[in-house]
Structures are given as C-alpha cells and as structure tokens.
Design goal:
disordered C terminus, alpha+beta, 4-stranded antiparallel sheet, globular, 18 helices, Arc Repressor Mutant, subunit A, Beta-Lactamase, single chain
C-alpha cells in the first residue's frame, strides 16, 4: 500500500504538470495506464449522434487502428451510447453498458477490437457539450482480461485529477511551455486568473481577474484573500485547501460554482502549484495555487441524452434508435448493432410504446426534433 500511495502521489503531480506543458500527456497516459492496469490510454472526444470524434492525447494506440476507428467504426461501436450517457467522472466498462456476449457478436468487436487484441475499456466522461463527450479511456488487452474491481478502484482514484488537468489545460491552451513567463500567458487569457500564496492572499490577478474584482458582483477580497460574494457558495473550503498537496487538494470536486440561477453562471477551477513544473513556473510569485474563473456554458446534451431522459430509454433501445436513424431498416440496424433482427424488432416495439409512435419514420422525426440546433456539421 505504501508503494501504491507513493506511485499515486507522484502520478497526480505529473498529471497536473500537463496544465503547464501539454507535451507531457503521452508519458502521463503511459503511467496512468500502468497504474490503473491497462495496455493503452487516451483522452479523446466522440459524438455517437454525429458519428465523429478525434484524439487529443494517447499512449500505445496503434495509429492505423485509431484512424480506422474514427473513419469507419465509430458509428459501429455499440458501447458509445452507454459511455456518452454515463455521469461525468463515473468510470464505466463494457459490461456496464451492454451484455458482453452481445458486444462480442457486434461487427465492431469482430472487425476492429478483436484484431487489435482489445477486449475491454474503462472510460470516464470528463466533459459534455453540444459536440459530444470528452473521455479518458484505459484499454485492456486480451492478455489482461476484462476490467475488474481493482481497475475500477484505481480508475476512479485518478479520474478527478485527469479531468481537472484537462479543463485547466484547455483554459491555458497549453501555451505556457512556449513562453518564458507565466504572467504573459495568464494576462492573455479571457478567463479571470488569480494566484494565491500560502496565506491565501491574492499575489497576482490578470486583467480579466482584476476587472472581476473591480466589478465586485462575483468575487471580492476579504483580508486580501479571494472570496465569493454570493453567501450561498458553500464550497469555499476548497479555496481554504489551496496550500495542500496535490493528492489532498484533488480529493474534492473539480469545480466550485460561484453563482446560482437566475444569475449568469460562473465557475472556478482550482489548481495546486506546489510541485513539479507548476512550482517552477510561479517561483517569482510565491504562489501555491491558481484559481481560474470563467463563465460556464450551459451543458448542451446530445439528442440521445435528451431522449433517454424524456422517454426513459435503456442503452439497448438507444443503440437501436441510433442505428435506425443513421442507416434505416431493421436488417441494416441489426448488422450495425450486432444483434438479431428479432431483437431489433423487440426494441422497436418498446420504442414505439415509450415514444407514442407507430412507424420508424415517426421515430426518425422525433430524433430530428431532439438534435441540438447548435450541433456543428
């Protein structure tokens, strides 16, 4: 356990260093796969409704199969719907979203996963928007077997840290490694940024941050310390932990809401700066943490998510509905999903009953009505 604790602590520090230098991700993913218990790992995005996706960072994913997946097999992957439907931060494996025997019968498994030697994946949604779901996935080779309880435990340990690093890294846009001054990067961000010292005092605020303090409607200074104006903010203890080590700091939530409806939603992302590349980048400030504050966009759910909630559809029903809307016809849908035509018909009858429709054309029109007008083509 001591060895695991040391490896975990060291890994978390490396994960947060990617916010300063995005080129560290492949090595971090290698170590993450090793810690969790997989042969490969990736941070990627995909949209089951649009049949598109791409990889942000990866370790040990065969480039040929990666390109083949997004050019052809992303639309045949029967696990995509279940992965997209999972709660943010909740790791899921194949058996969590569909029967494994059904997975093995699918075209996706026979033509893509099996030749690659991949038998399972522990995927964790990191973020959702109108264009799809961003996922952290650790993949199991056939020599390792299916995802087990220990892999789930370890995956859940590091998932919050991976998510925080991705979100903060997106705010920074990984420009820090290209400059000699962190202040230059922070001053150029649209997000408000504050650096906090060991006494919880603000030692740096970028122009956006200073404007937010001058406005005084969301954040203010109390005894030189950063504080939320809204008295309903109950997670200010997160700011009080800013000097803690990486592991302790990351044990809580990824973000702190600073305002509540009907006001404009503002979110704070908190990043420890106590070790590694982050420590070196802020030496001149004497800072122990950074707070990134930005306006939160409303989470736009995919049509699958919307219809699942509206009609209480199961993952299996959603897979059939997606296939029907994309390829049309019972035989074609059965081939895509990897189940028998009789099973497709059974799911269709359930879909008709739940959605008060009678024909496949009516189902497709219903899907079209739930597709976000903001979805990019």
């Amino acid at each position: 356990m001591n060895h695991e604790a040391n490896a975990f602590s060291d890994l978390i520090g490396s994960i947060y260093d990617t916010t300063i230098d995005g080129t560290r991700w492949p090595e971090v993913l290698r170590r993450s796969a090793e810690f969790v218990g997989g042969a490969a790992a990736a941070i990627y995005a995909k949209s089951p409704s649009a049949n598109t996706g791409f990889v942000y960072h990866q370790f040990n994913v065969d480039p040929y199969y990666q390109e083949l997946y997004f050019s052809k097999y992303v639309k045949l992957d029967p696990t995509s719907v279940g992965q997209a439907m999972a709660e943010i931060g909740q790791p899921v494996s194949t058996v969590d979203v569909m029967p494994y025997e059904e997975f093995m019968e699918s075209r996706f498994y026979r033509e893509w996963a099996e030749p690659l030697g991949m038998v399972d994946c522990l995927s964790t949604p990191l973020d959702k928007n109108e264009n799809g779901t961003v996922l952290f996935g650790v993949f199991r080779h056939k020599d390792q077997g299916l995802v087990d309880a220990e892999m789930r435990r370890r995956g859940k340990l590091i998932a919050p840290h991976i998510r925080r690093a991705v979100l903060v890294g997106n705010l920074l846009e990984n420009k820090t490694a290209e400059t000699t001054s962190l202040a230059v990067v922070l001053n150029g961000l649209a997000a408000a940024v504050f650096l906090i010292d060991g006494n919880r005092r603000v030692v740096f605020a970028n122009p956006s941050g200073q404007s937010m303090l001058d406005d005084g409607s969301v954040l203010c200074l109390k005894n030189d310390g950063l504080a939320a104006v809204d008295p309903r903010v109950t997670k200010t203890e997160a700011i009080a932990r800013l000097g803690d080590d990486d592991v302790a700091f990351g044990a809580g939530g990824v973000a702190v809401p600073l305002t509540f409806p009907p006001q404009t939603p503002w979110i704070a992302h908190l990043l420890p700066l106590t070790a590694g590349a982050r420590r070196q980048a802020v030496t001149s400030f004497g800072a122990v943490a950074a707070v990134f504050v930005h306006k939160a966009s409303l989470e736009a759910r995919s049509w699958m998510d919307a219809m699942s909630r509206a009609y209480r559809l199961t993952p299996a029903e959603l897979r059939v509905l997606a296939a029907i809307s994309e390829v049309g016809g019972i035989a074609a849908a059965a081939s895509v999903v990897g189940i028998s035509e009789a099973t497709v018909k059974t799911h269709l009858q359930s879909l008709f009953a739940k959605t008060a429709t009678n024909r496949q054309t009516e189902l497709i029109k219903l899907v079209a009505a739930h597709v976000s007008p903001l979805r990019q083509k």
